[in-house]
What does this fold into?
Amino acid sequence: MKANDATDHSSKAIVLLSGGLDSMVTAAIAQERGHEVHALSVDYGQRHRIELESASRIAERLELSSHVEIALDLRAFGGSALTDDVEVPKGGVGDAIPVTYVPARNLVFLALTTACAEAAGARDVFIGVNALDYSGYPDCRPEFIASFAETARLGTKAGVEGDAFTVHAPLQHMTKSDIARECERLKLDPAWSWSCYDPTSSGEACGRCDSCRLRKKGFAEAGLVDSTPYAD
It folds into this structure.
């Protein structure tokens, strides 16, 4: 399996579609490269469930070939402010891995996306991880993507028979301002997506959690308007 291959293909691809800005831009990039794009979203018991509604909206607006949502309730494990009764931090992005980290989430999600791809006969997997302007999650790093690519090569029928997958992470080395510019270039409406970890009771993005701060900072640095309504 190859990781982060930028070669264009006219083949079926599976995109991990969370409903966030990065996954929306990634899905549009996969389309731009000529893929027949199918999306997979995971209802993992997240507190910010509005993102699942956003994933459905993105799939519809981009006219993706299909969109499958599966349930895998990670609240049974807890261990994160996104799946447990833990307060979402609002003090700004720090250096330590934050409590919004969900244990092994991208490891689990990439395994599911690869399984979906193998079952569908797809050999291209897209994920919108970003290693520059992010909250310190270990499963967003290039080392992780490369390691998963090799694990999948060894652990799938397609891989051992020489018909391996390619893991694409087109946003891997972009800043949030770069991603905001890509959103603009691809003519996507930022409001289709959802990034907030702790939405208000009225359905607005809080504007103060790590994800909101990084997103707002990216659009501001790019000199672009984020059409998403923020409470703060």
Helices lie at 21-32, 50-61, 105-120, 142-155, 157-160, 176-185, 210-222. DSSP finds seven helices and six strands in the chain. The first strand starts at residue 2 and ends at 3. Confidence is low (pLDDT under 50) at residues 5-10.
